[in-house]
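Let's sit down with a protein and look at its sequence and fold side by side. Go ahead whenever you are ready, and we will take it from there.
>
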Amino acid sequence: MPAADEPVDSVLRVIAGKRVGGSGDGWFRSLATDAFFLSDNDLVVPTRSMFGGALRHQPALFFLDESAQTHHFGYFGDTRCAEAIVAALLDEAPPQFRPIGPLSWAGDSPTGSR
């Protein structure tokens, strides 16, 4: 088993979520959960916590779902996320995914790309 500072050979594809305010009470719920987490989130996990992991030989890639319907228990039921999951499993370079940036990898940014 590799040490924590040694890169691993497996790929990493991240499905991340950020709930954004919609109209009416959706906006209030998004504001309330952001205040609870003090950060963007998917109602369960802070978004900035979704991008790290063991060092990899290959670039780690992510797909970020941002909508008023985004929530931790709904990724498989959301068409865009389900398509991204299938692409992550079948494609070496899924077109919906982007490389995880260093600030996001470190847990300092919820954007994924910074």
